[in-house]
Amino acid sequence: MGEKIFRIEIDSKEKNSEAKILEKKFKDYNISLDISKVYTIQYDFSEKQIEKIANSLYSPVAETVRINSPHDIEFDWALELGFLPGVTDNVAHTATEIIDDLFKINIGLSKVFSSKLLFIKGDINRGDVEKISHELINVLIERFHIKSYEEYFKDEGMDYIVPRVNLHQSQDVVEVDLNVSDEKLMELGKKGILDPQTNKRRGPLALDLDYLHAIQDYYKKEGRNPTDIELESIAQTWSEHCKHTIFATEMDDISEGIFSRYIKGSTNKIRKDLGDKDFCLSVFKDNSGGIIFDDEFMVTDKVETHNSPSALDPFGGAITGIVGVNRDTIGFGLGALPIVNKYGYCFGRPEDTRIIYRGKNKTNPSLSSRRILDGVIYGVNVGGNCSGIPTPQGFVFFDDHYKGKPLVFVGTVGLIPRKISNGELSHEKEAQPGDNVVMIGGRVGKDGIHGATFSSEEMDEGSPATAVQIGDPITQKKFSDALVKEARDRGLYNSLTDNGAGGLSCSVAEMAKECGGFVVDLEKVPLKYPGLQPWETWISESQERMTLAVPEDKLNEFVDLMESRGVETSIIGKFNDTNRAIVRFNGKEIFNLDMDFLHDGLPERKLKTKPYPYNKKEPKIVIDDHTELFEEILGNHNNCSYEFISRQYDHEVQNNSIIKPLQGKGRVNGTASVVRPLAKSKKGIVMSQSLYPRLSEISCYDMAACAIDTSIRNCVAVGGNINHLALLDNFCWCSSGESERLAQLKDAAKACYDYTTIYKTPLISGKDSMYNDFKGFDENNNPIKISVLPTLMISSIGVIDDIHKTTTTDLKVPGDIIYVIGMTKDECGGSEFYYALKEIGSKSPKVNAKKARELYEKMYELNQKGMFSSCSSVGPGGLIITLAKMAIGGQLGVEVDFSKAPNEDLPIEKILYSESQSRFIVTIDPTNKEEFESEMKDFVFGEIGLVKNEEFVIKNNKEIINSNVKKLEEVYKERFKDY
Amino acid sequence: MVRVLIMSGYGINCEKESAHAFNIAGADSEIVHINDLISKKKKLADYDIIMFPGGFSYGDDTGSGNAFANKLRNHLWDDLLEFIKSEKLILGVCNGFQIMTHLGLFSLPSTDYGQRVHSIRWNNQNRYECRWVHLKNNNSKCVFTKGVDVTHLPVAHGEGRFFCDEKVLEELEKNNQIVFTYCDEKGNPANGVFPINPNGAMRDIAGICDSTGRIMGMMPHPERAIYSVNEPEFHLKKEISKRKNNNIDEFIETNFNIFKNAVNYFK
């Protein structure tokens, strides 16, 4: 290139926080650290210019700057950490914008690169420094360089490394011969198209033989072979990830498939039953589901998973997950405003340090559960916080089944006026023939190729590293504001959708269904770096992009607005009604498919199930020490405090937070949240989430029923109204090729129908992720497969009239009476109690929805009256754990006799820990005793004791536990206190 | 009507609640994209108050507030100086405070506008922190905080640790420019102890003003703490008041006053 290279290095005057934290992290090495920021710039700047640039990049009060000169401090090792070529480098991107703005020029992309330089002092060798490096980077996306002090001194600093992408491939379109043996076809489906330039397979198409035969037949009729871009595009569109074939296909005697029968079927029935009380507005057809908020507004919700990407690169997977699901809000109808983010994580236990490998002989190691946890949590931190969307709601669940692949649930709630300014319904959208195909936001690179097909398979050694992406929330924030706060209300586009799985290939083809066809000129798509092949541009999942249909007469206004908001806009084609999907590259047609074939050409399948061998053994339990067991369960992974997550996610931005993620003086994690989306209205949104994966080993039907009941009950506890409450389903399954796993799926889906129709809580949106399995090797080279527990996560979202009439979980006033509402039964199967005893059991909680519904209506009525001083939904860990958290939250004690809790003649340990559903613990002002008891006369309840100042006394007639709230708090907060 | 310009664009994200706070305090606020000022569609001179709200301008890349401050300095510096000279008000919260810090808007008696005197560094814990804190007003000069003593409101930031050299600290103190410091609920100083001081800020400093008292920046968010119902203790307070047959005030006046003081300054 011949351009000059500069290294601007910025040193901190005082030891910065990051250095201090890393010293602590690596305390075993006994090192001291200094960290400098580095900008490597390749551009022909003058010395004066580069000085000006340097001055724009540092704070003279706290930092000093060097240009092309080594640091003059004492150290033993210098360690530079940076990105690999092509990986999104947001800091460099901002530095580029600063430079462009400073000189009013446009230096272009890939001129600036950011990195970090650690100066390490300590008695360690190069091998130790390498180990430290591997703790700090992910080799899939980052690089490191080490120099000893002597080397650094001799070389006058670190090397001038420019991690630019240099692609030397030609941009040809390859014809793929389908007139080959079935064996060859299967290889094509599994490993991908053979690239003639590299002689390597391009990565999985995830097309099975029956699909390939259908494609073969189509091209026989067309009288030609497919191009690579056509085949890649069909693979994306037909992928499990995009088509949800398992839910859509005939299963046993259910010819219409379990989605139509059990999920959509339920919602349709509920809407019909509700008649004019139906509060659904848009279900199952858009990027999110939408329900009525009030006469003027609609509230939307969507929950996604990003499991496979998070296993490979936890930070990147999680940030693109949360920022991606934000786009399901922005892309709902004509564009909703994201007002709440939600998360849910299922991880392996972070103390588990045994590494598993994707390759034989300890090659291709997976990340440890702790690193996955840290990375995922931080990814949602950056994605959510940077986007200015509050995160009041979330949970974390630990079990060793999630060690191979974590589950990362991310959700976004949105708000949109029901009608936009021209009076049209905001959730109706239609691309019109003649509209321009417009792409806005980020540029396209090799990142995220084959994401959709990759997640439709089990993870093994061949899993592509290009599936990794890093998010750029600010690029998205800019277009989100420009669309939802400006362009939408000016009526500047007819339709929009998110560029998610499958990239342009899916978003354009999907939108073209609204009008009937499209022509795209692929060379007009802006690239991050030159040299992408056409098929890569078409299916790349590079993040932060939307596709819109902009009518010709609004095009200039739209483009001007986007430009003035710093949003890159490209007009890449036209929608039409020709029923053909056409892509050209530099004028040459490289893709020409029948729209019907592209969307509906996949052959029908038939799935057969075989009963899953559920656990039938119920253990015999003997308890020696009640206090010890209680403390173990209170402090276990799934009951203890995860405040460290809650407080690193901004839950106060947008000023909508009413019931927060941490409740009471004692800051306990609640199970439901309330927000007020509009400052001028008292109306609120209530949300919760729930899952019971351990019940999958006993009954997937009950697993689903418990998740549904809990998700609803949690909302009811804080003041939610079951008559204005909707649900979302996220199925995360494993080994979905196995008929026994499909039987579990069918069981769970059937429960969704049975319970939601009684509760009258419609399912408004959902998503499935069917292959959450890890295949590889352990430390001793034994082949292993780790599958997640079949997991159904149910999210609930409801609307209430007055946010003041809500109740939190923390105890409030000593002397208040404590009641248990609901029957406690012999239902400890899959409970935290049995887990502590290393048992599963066989007696799963059964839900009586009809009775529960009546109770929930009564609870709403009592919440409206302000009856409860505190209220808690009885959750994992049962009555005693729930009560303990209420005490910690209020920093108050209790004295209760649990034998007085309504129960089916159970031994005390089962009363304490059974996870029977549809129960609450409430406290009331003693002056309301009579009124409460008369209101509740048709329901099962028992008075168990009083709120006290500090002591935590539990009786079974006589005292069995005598503790105090300080001790409880200590146990509750111990596990993650240093996280 | 007092006109407030709420700055927006490039990742600023608290503009809506900031505008709401000023509006209910009696002002007429307008959310203005920085590019509309640069293109001269809008003029700073047409407003009485500028507010730089919180957010993540440019994703905090190259240091929180730095890139946005550069953009302002490159295009709007003269207009901004003119605005300051005409004795109008500027308020910055969180990222807004960080932007103003990089712009050098906190003049001391010994320095001019444009010279940076302090810096806002990463929290001691090196992590984003969202929690409610108490603040003590130490200042009689600042226009925004008249009548405010101890107040309660949330912080939400990764880079919030106030940092400067001893000389500057002395001058800030001497000239009565330290406005808010972190304290416990009774107003006793945090003395650097977490979580009362949520980020390790030097001398517990949460907010300062310029030498005139007309320009204030603070890390915590008063615009998120206008209504009592948003307080984490709301449900406890509601229950206790009910037993005494009292009602809870709709507003948290100590925070609301920051906006009302600004509006009343022009009356």
Poorly predicted runs of 5 or more residues of chain A? none
What distance separates the N and C termini of chain A? 46 Å
Shape of chain B: globular
The CATH homologous superfamily of chain B is termed: Class I glutamine amidotransferase (GATase) domain
Which quaternary structure do these chains form?
heterodimer
Q: What is the residue-averaged pLDDT of chain A?
A: 94
Q: What is the CATH architecture descriptor of chain B?
A: 3-Layer(aba) Sandwich
Number of strands of chain A: 38
- Span of the ends, CA to CA of chain B: 9 Å
Rg of chain A, Å, rounded: 29 Å
Number of helices of chain A: 30
Query: So what's the CATH class of the largest domain in chain A?
Result: Alpha Beta
The CATH topology of chain B comes to Rossmann fold
Give the class of chain B from helix and strand content and strand pairing.
alpha/beta
The biggest sheet of chain B amounts to: 9 strands, mixed
What profile does the largest beta sheet of chain A have? Answer: 7 strands, mixed
Please explain how this structure is put together.
With 979 residues, chain A is α+β, with helices and mostly antiparallel strands. Helices cover 32% and strands 23% of the residues of chain A. In chain A, the strands form eight sheets. Chain A has a seven-stranded mixed β-sheet, sandwiched between helices. A seven-stranded mixed β-sheet of chain A has the order 33-35-32-36-34-37-38. In chain A, strands 3-1-2-5-4-6 form a six-stranded antiparallel β-sheet. The radius of gyration of chain A is 29 Å and the shape is globular. Chain A starts with a strand and ends in a 5-residue tail after the last helix. Chain B contains seven helices and eleven strands. The termini of chain B are close together. Chain B has a single domain, classed as Class I glutamine amidotransferase (GATase) domain (Rossmann fold), CATH 3.40.50. At the A-B interface, α1, α3, α14, α16 and β22 of A face α1, α3, β5, β6 and α6 of B.
